[in-house]
Amino acid sequence: MAGEAAWKRPKAGDSEEELLRQQEEFLKAKQQPSVKPINPRNSANASDGAPSASRARSQFSKLKQSRAKQDVVSTSRGSGEVINPAVKDKIRETMKGKLEDMVQNVPTASSHIILGNILERKFDKYEFNNCVPATVKLGFPEVFRFDDASLVEKKTDGKQSLFGQKVSEVKSVRIESVKVPRDESFHCDKGEAIAMEDQLAIEIHKENLEKLAQMNEAEILHEKRKLEETLDPKIIQFLRNIKKKSGKRSIEQDNKQSSVSAASKTTAMDIEVSSDKKMKLSSNDNLNDSEMDCKNDTASTLITKETTMDTRSNDKKTKFPSNDVDTKMDCEDDSSSIIPGLSKELFEESKQKGWLHMNAPEPEKLKWMEDLPEKKEDEPDPTKEYNARFDFNGLLLPYKDESLTVDKGLHHHGEEPVRPGYSLQELLQLSRSSTQQQRGTALVTLANIMEKTRKGWYDKALHPAPLVALSQKNILLLLRFSLDDSSVAVVTAALQALRAFLVSEADEVCLDRLHGFDGYAEPTLTPQLEDKDTSSLKDHELAQLDTVATLLRSDFLLRIRYILNEMHPPPVGVTCALEILIRLARHSHITALNISSTSYLLDTIVQNFIPLSIDQLAMQDTIKNVYGIPVVKAIKLCRVLVTYGKKPVAQKLDNFKIIQSILTYISSETGRNNDISLSIESLRLWRILLHYEIGLDSVAGAQLTLISQLQLLLSNHDIQNTSELACEHAAALIAVASHEKTLKPNISTLLAKWSTQLSSVSNVTWGVMKLIAKSLSAVDEISAFKTTWLSNQHVFSNLRSSSNLLSDCNTTTDREPSCLPNLNVLTENGELQPIVSVHSCIPFLATILNTFHSSSRVAEIRTILEHPSFRKYIRELETTEWSLERSWYSRTELYLLTAVVKSASLLGDTINNQTAQIVWRITIKLISSLPADATDHVRKLLQIALSNEKVNLEMITNELAKLDLASTVDRVKIGSHSDAASLYERYVTPNGDWNQAAMPKDWLFLPLVHMYTKCKNDIKLQSEDKDSVLTVLSLTLVLPDLMEKLSPTLRFSRLILVYLCDTIYLDSDVSTLLLNVLSNLLRRYHTRLNFQTELPGLSSFTDLFIALCEHFCSTSYGDDGYAMTLLVAAAQRHDPHYRKLLWSEHAAALRYLKLPPEKLVLPLKEYLYPEEDDTSLIESYMTALVRGVVRETWCPVPFTIALHHSAMYLKRSNRLAVRMRAQVEKLRNKDIADALLHYVPPQL
After folding, report:
1. Poorest-confidence range of 79-93, 188-202, 496-510, 1124-1138?
2. Which among 14, 634, 688, 960 could disulfide-bond with 609, CB atoms 3.0 to 4.6 Å apart, if both were Cys?
3. Residue 1191: pLDDT band by 50, 70, 90 thresholds?
4. Which residues are within 8 A (CB) of 773 and not within 5 positions of it... i.e. 6 or more apart?
5. SS3 for 1095?
């Protein structure tokens, strides 16, 4: 003991090093530990298993040993062991050895470590149903007998049959006779079993209760405080939480007993609790046996509550009255306690009137019928965003609207019950509801929201826009799943929603209005993808990139064919399906071919919606089924498919004999409002089929019909009082009739009539001008076209207001997702692009000028160009930044300006100089504005803009004479005007997209960019490249208007590319021209240079500056022009990053910057002020001075810069400047030290 006492026990404050030291000393001493762990499982391996006599046995140990003795497996007849004792000993010896798996040959652990002792469960008590059925004399139960008197006296439930009433009475009698003894015996038997198993826990609990009974209230509270101070607060809180949960569980169990009969509850309440021990047993019985029936469970719950309350009140033997817990309430009373007052009245009414499914209250559903809380919330901050909610028409609702009552179906949502309307997320969830009506309502509501979004109703009001938000949530896939529904109503709603998501109705209407003005051109609406291969993408990934491609991948065309052919949706569903197919066809040429080649799809559409007869249309007053009736959208679909799919689709439609249907439609009338629309679409389809030489003989066959309709136009159609549709129909008819030569005299007569009437029309509309333009295009000669209308001021009065380029409108980029491109005819806030307004005259004037130019009608052209309204229009175009250049609808105005340029060039010198100059500047802007699919117009404009007349030879000679370029004047002459147009034509890329420009804004410098790219790719320059450089520099010098609209930074970044094109800048002519061009640019715009802005085609100006530094060191030989250019970015107004690059990483270039100060284009003040504050640059300056990298003799400009900034910094009083001044004073080079210490700044 003395040795053990000498060791120091670890304390709570000992560090880890102290503990390790004590452990090491204890192990070296080889002392026995004070505590020896004993595995109770291994005690069975002892010889007799008896405990040592010197140690006292606890009750827990004795009980465990007694159980271990009973764990021997025995037979049912005796208590002997199954295994022979000798064999048993041998097995034990084997078990002591090392066990190995025979397959894996690895040691195997004994299974008793994991499972413990595996015992067979025995049942000493069995429960039987002691209820003996009543004996009968016969083999069958006795027949029930009812007295009439008893039936009258007894109030019976009308819902229950007489047999059911009698059986329930017999069953209740049996339950009453058996319940009490069964419950008592059950509790008693189970209690004994629990007492045997949990005897130790019961004894402990009994001792606790006895101790509590001997203590008064003050002692109990004292001990309670003592425990609270001793125990961990977390443990106390844990025990309290368990107590609360057990209390809640008992309350929930009481609520579940509402189905127990009143007789059973009364019996259970009469059970008397005689002792705490009995209460505890019953409580354990309730917690451990979950298979107890409803009656026993009720009694046990009551006893549990009594036990809990007894423990809290510290009363050992107290019987609580049964009225403390309301156990007599039946199911209906319990349910009625949670039913609101209004709902109770509803239930009473339902019982009286016998309403179906209203007999059982459902609290979950009743919550939806409660009144809204009366708490009034404050209006949200107008600057803060809140969740948008919509009504069923797709209208955005205010945050709160008192006028919307709760009975309109707009409050049936879980979130924000006070606010009316549904959010997008709730509608998406409702669209997948199991109820058909809910799915349909949600889909139609989503369709209404998307339609109003496309109209611009929610521009800048919702973020993100509903269409973008729904696209991000993959509504396309949701709608595609909805189309697979078996319900026609749901499929129709899904088609409406998909049509609203895909189709822009405004774009379709405006495209129909422009039909015929630009020939047969239609826009392709394909998303711009960086990676064209989308085969590896999943559907939800592809849906975010290309909506139409996703639909085609999901067999959408086959599903549409099935819907139209088998499901037969109503008219609105058919129309939506056809409009969706029209939008898909506008995706691309390939998509149009896929639609037309889908088996039986076109067959179904033509057979059902383009029939040969219109009898059904004439016989029906209200159309409820469009099958067998001509549908305008079906004819338009065929027209669009031919437009995009071209001749293969036209030939396939010809196989369906579709021209016969067209002839029927244009020659028949049903008296309906849509007759004229049907005729218009039929004539448009006929015309495009004729364009692809399909059915050419059909015009001759229908000559009589066409002549009669042309005669009707001559006699009845006056443009003073005609409608828009009538003009569209007449224009479509003339376009078809123009394919027959014998009908052209009739068209000429109509043209003469309408052009004469135009001179007196005060309200000139789109339809009237389109009709005259189509008539003018249809005739071979324009002698019948009267020009007296040129004096009508009303024709030109709306020219400025209908211009897209001068509108200052912007297309919305955040209204629609990028995966679904559209033409965006509606600009911000839903405003229509001006060029398609009802009074727009731009398409008409474009046709007129092109016709006059091709017919060389000089007088008429001059009249138009000199018109005051027209001159004002082109003058504004010259000076104003153009809007909506990339819009599809603006191409009509661009073609008008192209016609103006061509017509002006036709006039030549006869036009006044001011107008000619305006037109030439418009030509320069047009070259970079025309779409990439109009390359012919671009080439023509280049020839006009760089013609011999404009690039005057004498002007160039005079300029070059000043530059001492007499030896190369002839070469510059040729390069400047003869080959200039052909030089730039080679950079016009054919077959581009309509939404891309044919030439960039800086097209003048394209030859320099091309040469720079060749040098980067190590391609040797040819002799003609020098001529290209001379041409570009000469045009830049002589015609500065060519780059007037470009920023000075962009011009500078393009011109300095010449210095990176190998050594071509060392040529004397190139060097002189380049120096002159750069000098002119820098003198005028050096203060506007900003190298931080993004430049097209350039990742960053820093990379370009580094390339200039490296190329200067390797090839420049100190060229003055190159040196001057390199020093531009080193001026003090620019980022110090460029000065650090030049004075640190590329300090070797300083040695060759021998440019004298008088040759600097920028003033020297730009390099000296403001004074430098960057200490790292000051150190670089002083290092270059001290080491002699820069000297006044060979690089005067860098020497002046370094000396000025270093000396001015040394004059400061901060610590670094003082320390640096002290170091300078110690320099061995006294000349540099004196120059720095006694520096006097120059007077600038």
Report:
1. 79-93
2. 634
3. very high
4. 517, 843, 844, 847, 848
5. strand
Least confident of 100-109, 199-208, 484-493: 100-109
Using CA atoms, how far residue 256 sits from 183, 293, 329, in Å, is 19, 12, 12
CA geometry: angle 897, 942, 949, nearest 5 deg: 95
Are 1040 and 994 in contact by the 8 Å Cβ rule? The answer is no
Ranking 293-297, 393-397, 515-519 by mean pLDDT, the lowest is 293-297
Per-residue pLDDT of 440-449, as tens digits, reads 999 999 999 9
* CA-CA-CA-CA torsion sign (216, 218, 222, 224): positive
Tokens of 756: 């004469």
> Residue 690, Cα to own-chain centre: how many angstroms?
44
Our measurement of the distance from residue 238's CA atom to the centroid of its chain's CA atoms, rounded to an integer in Å, reads 47
Query: Residue 192's pLDDT is what?
Result: 44
What burial class does residue 1173 get, using C-beta atoms within 10 Å of its C-beta: 0-12 exposed, 13-18 middle, 19+ buried?
exposed
> Dihedrals φ, ψ of 981, to 5°?
-65, -45
How far apart (Å, rounded) are the C-alpha atoms in residues 168 and 166?
A: 5
Q: Residue 809 phi/psi, 5° resolution?
A: -85, 155
Name every residue whose Cβ is closer than 8 Å to that of residue 1046 and which is 6 or more positions away in sequence. Answer: 1001, 1002
In 431-533, alpha helices (H): 436-454, 466-472, 475-482, 488-502, 505-514
CA angle 653, 659, 660 (to 5 degrees): 125
Token pair 């007869």: residue: 613
Q: Could you tell me the two tokens for 415? A: 């979130």
Terminal-to-terminal C-alpha distance of the chain: 101
pLDDT at 288: 38
Measured CA to CA, the distance from residue 672 to residue 696 in angstroms comes to: 30
pLDDT digit string, tens, across residues 827-844: 987 899 999 999 999 999
What number is the average pLDDT over the span 1073-1084? 94
Question: In this structure, how many other beta carbons lie within 10 angstroms of the beta carbon of residue 634?
Answer: 23
Taking residue 34's Cβ as centre, other Cβ atoms within 10 Å add up to 8
CA distance 1121 to 1142: 17
Tell me the average pLDDT across 596-610. 96
Phi/psi of residue 117, nearest 5 degrees: -75, 125
Q: Please give the distance of CA 678 from its chain centroid, rounded to a whole number.
A: 39
Cis ω for the linkage preceding 464 (within 30 of 0): yes
DSSP annotation of 9 reads P
Beta-carbon count within 10 A of 103 CB: 6
Total residue length of the chain: 1244
Contact 61, 107 (CB under 8 A): no
How many whole angstroms separate alpha carbon 550 and alpha carbon 243?
Answer: 58
What's the CA gap between 610 and 600, in Å, rounded? 14
Q: Find the Cα–Cα–Cα–Cα dihedral 353, 355, 361, 362, rounded to 10°.
A: -150
Give dist(CA 1008, CA 1028) in Å, integer: 8
Instruction: Tell me the C-alpha distance between 446 and 434, whole Å.
Output: 18
CA dist 779 and 79 (Å) reads 123
410 within 8 A of 467, measured Cβ to Cβ: no
Structure-block tokens of residue 573: 């569903």
Task: Output the CA angle 946-950-954, nearest 5 degrees.
Answer: 115
Residue 35 is predicted with a pLDDT of 64
- Which letter, b or e, does each residue of 951-989 get, where b requires 16 or more Cβ atoms within 10 Å of its Cβ? beeeebbebbeeeebeebeeebbebbbeebbebbeebbe
Q: To which residue do tokens 């004539």 refer?
A: 683
Long-range contacts of 476-479 (CB under 8 A, 24+ apart): 476/501, 476/543, 476/547, 476/550, 476/551, 477/539, 477/540, 477/543, 477/550, 478/428, 478/431, 478/432, 479/443
pTM for the complete prediction? 0.72
**CB neighbour list of residue 166: distance below 8 Å, 6 or more residues apart:** 144, 146
Residue 461: which of 399, 529, 403 has the closest Cα?
A: 399
| pLDDT, tens only, 113-166 | 333 444 444 444 444 454 445 555 555 566 656 555 555 555 555 556 766 776
